[in-house]
Design brief:
With 423 residues, the protein is α/β, with parallel strands linked by helices. The chain has helices spanning 16-19, 27-32, 49-63, 74-77, 86-101, 117-121, 129-145, 160-173, 189-194, 196-207, 221-241, 263-273, 278-281, 322-331, 350-369, 413-420, and strands spanning 9-13, 67-71, 105-109, 151-153, 246-248, 250-252, 255-258, 286-290, 294-297, 337-342, 374-380, 399-402, 408-411. The protein contains 16 helices and 13 strands.
Length: 423
């Protein structure tokens, strides 16, 4: 374990829907509360971070972390089309001020998977109007907070739509094969397939269509391009109002390792996952790299986790070395600053989390020493939280949340381990 250079961001990340609680105007909340939901449980109050953010930020600062990546919830800020809630944006201004009071750099994400229900009713992420709607939201937010932040991620894991669509296709063809681990978010694919008919009826009641185009449910090449247009429109809006802000997006990236003649397919997967975005992110101030594991790529399909290999709660292979490999591969083509905006492991044994952080950050330091412009490392996640369709069983956090005793915060040794790297 080493220490990062002066000025390097050492922090943790969260997403609004996963930690704040009671995000009642979002599509994810609607999905959770359907009678035939694919979610294993409801988010409910989550970690109550909306009310307890000051306590959580203070714990980060006490451990030594110097940066916090969090998201602003679009569905809270704009609960109805054309209606912006000034009280909500003031709340996020308070969060930013709290970070600054504790010497923590706020890194703001404007969109992290969950959308307002009204947006989905308009056609969601397959509708041409999503670009303008996102731009209006971004303009409002930046007008309110832009003078107080220096780093903004427009869209979290902008490639998520294609990844979810790809894994759904594979699951359909191979119903008996465990698909968990092919996409870096908590999914319950089996329930998604079994409940499809009843969900179609419930979707029609809530969203006005049996097949809502929610960001987290997978997308097409068309929605992928709309997402890129939304990013570019948002970046232009941010720069016009606050040219000092460094703007980028984040991508979910796997360490693709071809085996048994899988080289050609690995290249195709990398092109879909990363390379085809290069024209759209050229000129961005930074790129957020998000990685959790490796993928062994065969000529026809991805290979399962090797026999005897350690697995995480998410059924990923425990493989912290993947992050260094991905950073180096990205840096070969993206000629700009990089930030590791997510990297982490779900496990009950915190000693395995400590080891994961040590190995992963050693890899980051190797990249920095070799001149790769990596500017920060954000562990996922600050606290044990709501892992989307998989619920609360997955333990990614540096801080435990005792859900049986008033959501009491209990810092883990891994928090101190990461914080020591910034001191």
């Amino acid at each position: 374990m080493g220490k990062f250079p002066k000025g390097f961001f050492v922090g943790a990340a969260t997403a609004a829907h996963q930690v704040e609680g009671n995000n009642t105007n979002s599509d994810c909340w609607a999905q959770e509360n359907m009678p035939h939901t694919t979610y294993k449980e409801k988010s409910g109050i989550a970690c109550d971070h909306y009310n307890r953010y000051a306590e959580d930020i203070a714990l980060m600062a006490a451990a030594g972390l110097n940066a916090y990546r969090f998201s602003i919830e679009w569905a809270r800020v704009q609960p109805e089309e054309g209606v912006f809630d000034d009280a909500v944006i003031e709340h996020y201004r308070d969060v930013i001020a709290c970070c600054e009071a504790h010497g923590i750099e706020p890194v703001v994400t404007l969109f992290h998977f969950s959308s307002p229900v009204w947006l989905i009713r308009k056609g969601g992420w397959e509708a041409e109007t999503v670009v303008g709607d996102f731009e209006k939201y971004v303009r409002y937010v930046i007008d309110k907070i832009g003078d107080d932040v220096r780093y903004v991620c427009t869209i979290n894991e902008a490639n998520m739509g294609l990844q979810v669509a790809s894994i759904a296709r594979r699951y359909t063809m191979q119903m008996k094969r465990a698909a968990q681990g092919g996409v870096q978010m908590g999914l319950n694919m089996q329930a998604m397939m079994e409940n499809m008919k009843m969900q179609a009826q419930e979707n029609a009641e809530i969203f006005g269509t049996p097949k809502p185009n929610c960001f987290n449910l997978g997308g097409s090449e068309h929605s992928d391009m709309l997402t890129m247009q939304a990013h570019k429109a948002a970046k232009a809006a941010i720069k016009a109002r606050c040219p000092h802000i460094k703007v980028g997006l984040t991508l979910s990236l796997h360490d693709l390792q071809p085996v048994d003649g899988g080289e050609a397919r690995a290249k195709d997967v990398w092109d879909e996952e990363f390379a085809h975005y290069l024209p759209f992110i050229e000129g961005d101030d930074f790129l957020g790299v998000q990685n959790y594991t490796r993928t062994l790529v065969g000529p026809e399909d991805d290979l399962p986790v090797p026999d005897g290999a350690e697995k995480t709660q998410m059924n990923y292979e425990y493989y912290p070395q993947a992050l260094e490999h991905v950073i180096r591969k990205v840096a070969a083509d993206f000629k700009g600053d990089l930030m590791v905006t997510e990297n982490g492991v779900s496990c009950d044994d915190d000693s395995r989390r400590v080891n994961f952080i040590n190995v992963a950050t050693d890899g980051v330091m190797n990249c920095v020493r070799d001149g790769i412009p990596v500017k920060g490392y954000f562990y996922w996640s600050l606290m044990d939280n709501f892992e989307w369709q998989m619920g609360y069983r997955m333990k990614f956090g540096l801080i435990a949340i005792d859900r049986e005793n008033g959501l009491t915060r209990k810092p883990k040794e891994s928090l101190a381990t990461l914080g020591a790297m910034a001191k």
